[in-house]
């Protein structure tokens, strides 16, 4: 099949861009470890309140792990538990979240922290809180009549307790 | 030699045996009725769905409340179902019926009857589903994600819409098969070939959603099974869901490749490349659905990435198409005596609505496609997933690129089918409708893209989120969306007015169904491009590679299933 000379150039340029894009995305994911939530942790969604760590939702300081804090969060129609999350700036945080009923979203508005919460699955994401401020956490998956009333707050604060870091 | 000329001779020959005299340049009268029935339903859906869209943007501006206890998500469900599923599917099937009848010849009585059976099955299904939405038994949006559970009649209704569409598509495909049998060894009419590729893709893709509904959602909503596997339903849905967007797009590509060149007075740049790009769309439409699930638990990162790679391959047929279009335009412009590098641009028929609307559609596809690459870019998806950026994205792609091409097509197709003329006045009103649409969409979609980057969620009623500072920033963009949405609704009123004129009031006459010929000197199309067995095998292989292990993983690691919830 004959292909016009200019079209060959155009397609070669396109294919080169394609390869460049995919290499960047791939290296960033598999070498630098910037995957979105891929957690394989399953749970009985009807007994979330009895199962650790969800029996104690909140912010927990941890030792000996790759991260400094664990934020354990339970979503249900139409609220998050806890309502307010406070972490010191610069700390590495693991968000661990699940739902007790339908699918909810867990999005820290304006950031890369964005996961689907699905019944029976735990979602996880590790990140560094590098900007001081108050961030809105919203449910971004339609979950019913009160969907737009479902939110909580993430406060990234200047730490007075600097001894640990 | 050009394939199109050969084909026209053949069609005339085929019709010699019939008692009726049918010109090969026109759609058969009886086929026209079938096509028109579909197109009329599509425009009713446009009006009602558009009205719902207007209500949504008004509510979300914070200045307006829905009366009579109507729910925001009920209106949103109507908007999504009518515009995403009904307008598109009906217009596509109507257009495709006309395209096959025009290029491969009139349908046989049996084929046409099959088409009508499909039409009525779809329509009964649509009315059943609509009833449940109106009764507030199905405010689950058009993606109906479990474990929100709609009334079983809603699921059954949507199933009938899909089954009906298979039957209409089958009727069209049978006519193509008949042509191939009667014209052995010849290159088939380009438009008919494209219709069959689109139908094949639709069939393979809808198997996923059919499996979801028939084996999971229906028995679950009827109470035969108590629990379902939520992740499995979502994965089957998105196996279908991304191909759905190509099912919308390919008919627009049919118009761009095979019809627009004729409208500008030019030729098809290359028949072979047009077919190649359709076959590539077929291959890369289905094994890519997981890129809608990048932030979900339960699916391995490696397999998400594999599908991201397959998703990006769509760049190739997209660039092929862009090249072919602009090559056609430039060749034609130079033929008319254009000078300089961009002089040909002035020589395009800007005052012809049949050209202008599809052209605006092509332009909108540049930012639309670029936004799509952002969405599919694995990590970057986290910034925009389920924000209103995504809504802004598909209002550029389907709600501008695709539908403006459809409107520009309807303006000549409807009078062709009704035996009337597109008058100068209607042509000009059509241009106004297209410009209004573009202005409204730039404002609305632009505001959606920006607010989405700031984190504003999609599919959400007006909310101040407890007076949050971030949410306050979103509200000015929501007001802009209301302004854009209002302009879009005014455009819809123009469009409905023009369609009514073309259906019942325009002067009688003959409106051309333009079909372009292949440029002289273009090489003969390789037979391989029409070998559906070869492409079918590659398609199945790609689907198996992309989906086998993720699906086994999902089923093997399945947690306790979900009961149904009605939270609206």
Give a short overview.
Chain A: Keywords: Copper, Membrane, Metal-binding, Transmembrane, Transmembrane helix. Helix content of chain A is 16%, strand content 34%.
Q: What keyword list fits this structure?
A:
heterodimer, A: 165 residues, alpha+beta, Immunoglobulin-like, 5-stranded mixed beta sheet, 1 helix, 10 strands, 16% helix, elongated, B: 568 residues, mainly alpha, Cytochrome C Oxidase, Chain A, 16 helices, globular, disordered N terminus
Contiguous helical run count of chain A: 1
Q: Which series of helices and strands of chain B comes N to C? A: HHHHHHHHHHHHHHHH
What is the CATH homology-level superfamily of chain B? Cytochrome c oxidase-like, subunit I domain
* Corresponding CATH architecture of chain B: Up-down Bundle
Mean pLDDT across all residues of chain A, rounded? Answer: 93
Give the topology, please.
The complex is a heterodimer of chains A (165) and B (568).
Chain A: H1 5-30, E1 58-61, E2 69-76, E3 79-81, E4 84-88, E5 92-99, E6 104-108, E7 114-117, E8 123-128, E9 133-138, E10 151-157
Parallel strand pairs in A: 2-5, 4-10
Antiparallel strand pairs in A: 1-2, 2-3, 5-8, 6-7, 6-9, 9-10
Chain B: H1 3-14, H2 29-60, H3 72-103, H4 109-134, H5 152-182, H6 190-221, H7 230-263, H8 271-283, H9 301-312, H10 315-335, H11 353-376, H12 381-384, H13 388-418, H14 424-453, H15 469-505, H16 532-556
């Amino acid at each position: 099949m004959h292909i016009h000379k200019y079209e060959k150039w155009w397609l070669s340029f396109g294919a080169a861009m394609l390869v460049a894009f995919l290499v960047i995305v791939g290296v960033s994911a598999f070498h630098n470890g910037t995957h979105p939530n891929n957690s394989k942790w399953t749970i009985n969604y009807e007994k979330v309140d009895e199962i650790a760590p969800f029996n104690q939702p909140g912010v927990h300081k941890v030792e000996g792990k790759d991260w400094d804090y664990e934020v354990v969060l339970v979503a249900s129609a139409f609220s998050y538990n806890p309502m307010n999350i406070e972490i010191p700036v610069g700390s590495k945080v693991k968000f661990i979240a699940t739902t007790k009923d339908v699918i909810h979203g867990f999005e820290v508005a304006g950031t890369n922290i964005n996961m689907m919460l699905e019944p029976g699955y735990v979602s996880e994401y590790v990140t560094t809180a590098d900007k001081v401020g108050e961030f809105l956490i919203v449910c971004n998956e339609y979950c019913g009549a009160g969907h737009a009333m479902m939110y909580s707050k993430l406060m990234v604060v200047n730490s007075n307790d600097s001894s640990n870091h | 030699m050009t394939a199109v000329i050969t084909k026209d001779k053949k069609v005339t020959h085929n019709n010699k045996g019939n008692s009726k005299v049918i010109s090969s340049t026109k759609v058969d009268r009886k086929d026209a009725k079938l096509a028109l029935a579909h197109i009329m339903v599509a425009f009713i859906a446009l009006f009602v769905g558009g009205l719902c869209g207007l209500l949504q943007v008004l509510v979300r501006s914070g200045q307006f409340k829905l009366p009579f206890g109507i729910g925001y998500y009920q209106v949103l469900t109507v908007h999504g179902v009518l515009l995403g599923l009904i307008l598109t599917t009906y217009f596509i099937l109507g257009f495709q019926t006309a395209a096959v009848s025009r290029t491969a010849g009139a349908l046989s009585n049996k084929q046409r009857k099959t088409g009508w059976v499909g039409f009525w099955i779809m329509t009964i299904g649509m009315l059943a589903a609509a009833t449940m939405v109106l009764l507030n038994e199905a405010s689950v949006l058009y993606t109906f994600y479990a474990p929100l559970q709609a009334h079983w009649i809603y699921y059954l209704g949507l199933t009938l819409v899909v089954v009906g569409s298979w039957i209409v598509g089958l009727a069209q495909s049978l006519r193509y098969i008949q042509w191939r049998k009667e014209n052995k060894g010849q290159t088939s009419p380009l438009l008919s070939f494209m219709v069959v590729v689109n139908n094949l893709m639709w069939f393979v893709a809808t198997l996923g959603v059919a499996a979801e509904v028939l084996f999971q959602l229906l028995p679950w909503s009827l109470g035969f099974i108590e629990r379902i596997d939520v992740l499995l339903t979502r994965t089957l849905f998105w196996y279908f869901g991304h191909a759905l967007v190509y099912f919308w797009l390919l008919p627009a590509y049919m118009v761009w490749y095979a019809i627009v060149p004729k409208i500008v007075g030019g030729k098809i740049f290359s028949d072979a490349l047009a077919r190649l790009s359709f076959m590539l769309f077929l291959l890369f439409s289905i094994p890519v659905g997981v890129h809608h699930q990048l932030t979900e638990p339960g699916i391995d990162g490696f397999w998400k990435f594999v599908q991201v790679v397959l998703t990006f391959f769509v760049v190739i047929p997209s660039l092929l198409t862009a090249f072919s279009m602009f090559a056609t335009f430039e060749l034609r412009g130079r033929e008319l005596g254009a000078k300089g590098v961009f002089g040909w641009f002035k020589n395009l028929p800007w005052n012809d609505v049949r050209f202008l609307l599809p052209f605006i559609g092509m332009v909108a596809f540049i930012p639309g496609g670029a936004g799509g690459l952002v969405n599919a870019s694995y990590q970057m998806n986290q910034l925009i997933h389920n924000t209103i950026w995504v809504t802004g994205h598909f209002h550029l792609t389907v709600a501008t690129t695709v539908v403006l091409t459809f409107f520009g097509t309807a303006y000549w197709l409807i009078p062709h089918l009704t035996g009337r003329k597109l008058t100068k006045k209607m042509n000009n009103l059509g241009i106004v409708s297209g410009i209004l649409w573009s202005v409204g969409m730039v404002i609305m979609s632009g505001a959606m893209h920006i607010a989405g980057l700031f984190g504003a969620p999609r599919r959400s009623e007006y909310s101040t989120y407890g007076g949050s500072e971030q949410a306050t920033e979103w509200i000015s963009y929501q007001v802009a969306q209301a302004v854009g949405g209002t302009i879009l609704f005014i455009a819809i009123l123009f469009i409905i007015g023009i369609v009514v004129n073309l259906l019942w009031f325009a002067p009688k006459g003959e409106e051309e169904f333009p079909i372009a010929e292949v440029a002289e000197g273009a090489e003969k199309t390789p037979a391989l491009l029409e070998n559906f067995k070869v492409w079918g095998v590659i398609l199945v292989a790609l689907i198996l590679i992309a989906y086998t292990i993720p699906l086994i993983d999902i089923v093997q690691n399945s947690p306790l299933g979900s009961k149904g919830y009605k939270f609206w």
